[in-house]
Amino acid sequence: MVVIEGTASLNLVKEQLDESLSVAESNLEQYAEELSDTRRLTLCVDQFRQLKGVMAVVNLHGAALLVEEMEALGDFILANTDVDQEPLLAGLSNAIMVLGHYLEYVQVKQSTLPVLLIPTINEVRSLAKKSFLPESTFFNLDKNPSRPAKQTGESADHAKLEEIGRRLRHMYQVGMLGVFKGESVAPNVKLMQRALDRIDSLSGDVPMSKLWWLGQGVLSALESGNVEITNSRKSLLGMIDRQIKAVVLQTEVTLQKTAPDSVVREAVFVTSLAEKTDGVVGEILSEFGVAEDRMDGITIQNEQSLMTGPSGSVIKSVVDAIKEDLANIKDSLDLGARGTHGGDSEGFISISEALVKMAKTLHVLELVDAAEQLSEQSLVVAKWTSSEDIDADSDEFNAVADALLFVENSIASLSPRLGGVSSLDTTEVESVTNGGMSITQLDEARRLVIEESRAGLTLAKRALTSFMESNWDSMHLNNVPTILNTVWGGLTFLQLKRASSVMKSCEEFIRSRLIKDRSNEPDEHLMETLADAITSIDYYLESLESNKPIGEGMLDVAEESMDELGCSNKAA
After folding, report:
1. Are 330 and 303 in the same domain?
2. Please, which contacts does 92-98 make with residues 24 or more away whose CB atoms are closer than 8 Å?
3. Is residue 420 scored above 70 in pLDDT?
4. Bigger pLDDT: 136 or 318?
5. Domain that residue 35 falls in
């Protein structure tokens, strides 16, 4: 974090800066209303040019760069009046707003933190048909050391890397595609890490291994979900993929190359955003001498929110509030049904009013059927004058309870659900409600099955590791087929046919090839391929557990791994 020098100077010119931004915005708005009046846009660009000089004087280098790009975009618009100007003008307008917020932020926080402006700078550059600036533009890297010696891993085998490189690249790409789509980040990143780790191990001590090392640092930072997946970071992941492709096509030549300094700096910057500094992240930060007072991704996001205004999901906040109100209403009705209410009508009137208020909120959320049911039942509750009016076995009371269950299920349908169901329509909600079931409870049951399945996979992976470390002592595998068969049952219950088919293939392979058939000892490559299949299913389940389905690509990797082992595992 850089504390600006001469804050008094900024304070002296702050009013003039605000006025210049206001004039620029006014001219931009007038030009947008009358595109033939290019003089207005020229005046706007002139304001940007003046602002750029002032920003440089008061050491606001990020702001100076943003204004420079705004000036360039203005000139681009003037030179291309025949193109659709609406998105270009909207981008300029947004940049003016962000710049105004940024100046207020600097004045209050006494900190420039120019990295906050990188997203806006790149947005403006993209509108002017220019390439993105790296996020590490304002990140100072004092040294560029070599990679430390590797501690563990497979023996270098370039022939094997050339042989299985395409599958490893596909594994990396499947994870990368999921990250690009904004799907469950952690399992996708883990798949990429596994692919990169295998490539790194087989590459051995070569110049290109430094990029694999830095790539692991980037992926570790992204895995936690605390580091946002921006376009620049996607570009960095894509660059690593292109190097993997080059290794597949020209293994020996590519492995002797080194990563460009700009890529190294970008990778170290993204790694420095990690919240935790253990493992490869700590190793990279230590080797490159990154300061301990660095700002992690969460801190930067918080500062970004502070600069631009409130953030977060409004829907989630509203849903949480409704759930809390529902719980309170159910508690009150439960007390009434047991004859322990307040004894007068005031409590029931307050419940009726709460139902009416909730119905209005549901209308805003476009849950019309739920809102109407709640409105109808609020009239029923309003007629109750004492606890004696409540008969827990009556149709009237059950109708109120059913309406509350319907609302609960309708609210649950707004959020992503376990197993990849993003929402339920009204008919499905009614069907579940008529069966007396709660979507939340059903999801909890599914979550429990997934949790137990993942626990089984963890036990299986530990057993396989012990098997390898004990020089292929099959005693460690005795319980694995039973464990995987249990996992298969859970996946079948969840109707995850492809995943359950892979589990059945894994169980049969371990039983027949690793336990019964002792004629040929397995090798590390065979065990790693088997682990790829099991780990891919684990990542897939992890994505379901976090309500962020990862897609079918992870299952493709699992099936390809079993195919490589000679197992037929396609779901029927």
Report:
1. no
2. 92/28, 92/44, 92/124, 93/25, 93/28, 93/29, 94/120, 94/123, 95/66, 95/69, 95/70, 95/120, 95/123, 95/124, 96/21, 96/24, 96/25, 96/28, 96/70, 98/66, 98/308
3. no
4. 136
5. 7-133
